[in-house]
Fold this sequence. Notes:
By secondary structure, the chain is α+β, with helices and mostly antiparallel strands. It starts with a helix and ends in a 5-residue tail after the last helix. It has a five-stranded antiparallel sheet with strand order 2-1-3-10-4. It contains 14 helices and ten strands. It is elongated. Helix 3 (69-79) crosses helix 4. The protein folds into two domains: 54-161 and 321-340, no CATH class; 173-312, no CATH class. The site of zinc ion (ZN) has 7 residues, from helix 3.
Amino acid sequence: MGKQKAKQKKKAGSQKVSSKKRRVLIGKPKAVKTGKPSSTTRKALKTDRLDLSKFPAESVTQMERGICLACVWEVFTRHLKLAPKTALVEIKRYTPSLDELSAAALPRPYVAAQSSKEACPYCGAASKWIARLPIYRIESGKATDALRRELVKSLSKKNDAFVVLEQKATQQHAFFEWLELISKQLDLDDPAWIREVSRHYLSRVAPKVDWLTEFNQAHSIRRSRRLEEGWEIDSGRLFLSPMLFDELLLMQYLVSRSHLAGGLTFEGRYTLPELFHRLRNSGYLRGVGVQANNPGDALEQLLAHLSGGEAVLRFYYIIDRRALLESAKGLKMVKAKGAAR
Ligand SMILES: [Zn+2]
């Protein structure tokens, strides 16, 4: 805790230094001939990612948007006929909207993440004009709320270097998005996926446990005959309470049902009716209050139960605008000298 605070303090301190430096640079543009951010500053920005290691991994998503400032400059000054000064103010003020954050692919002036080292595909401007906007999305909840507030409090407020946007969603929405995300990461042709999906799910339901370590210690995962709830490690085996174990079967089924013959679990392949009977006979369905008489209805109710249904949840997007502000500074110096690109 103390170490973390000291780290944040140090971080805030280094930001202060760089913004001071920034002012000096703007005041004396002649000192920087090319107008590009100095290599040390660029390096610092690149590695200076927010530390979210304290957050439960399943509640945090990281992404990045690239935006070509040369393109924006052109649109603002040539097409919209904004005065350079106004254009610069607008660029510095820029924050993506929630729609832009959620979109899979965005048109010009956005640039795909994989081309970060390449020139702008639209206007050919050098990669230094493509400002990277690192974005962190944190799912609300008991496990993250206090950590998130602490993190946001520690961030630099100067020039709105960090902007936090809030999006309302349902628990169900978050659950399915999470399920889709981990499904994408899994290779269903590699038998290890079944352990992976189990670890992801347990990390989601019990975020305070270091499941990576637990799984590294366990060579097998079993259904406990003894435990009423929770789990335990015994002689290299991870024993789960029957309810938890059965829930994993369901998760495994959900992830693999659309793959090949589908429905692969710890207990082999299940069709939906077979899984339904299995979960009914074990008492799992009764345990979670699902009373449906047919597999389809039961699955629907199970999903509502697992996900939390329509209950409200919030996504908090932390947008790191430091690189954008840094690039905009260079833009001012170059454009002011009339040296377009
Ligand atoms: Zn461009």
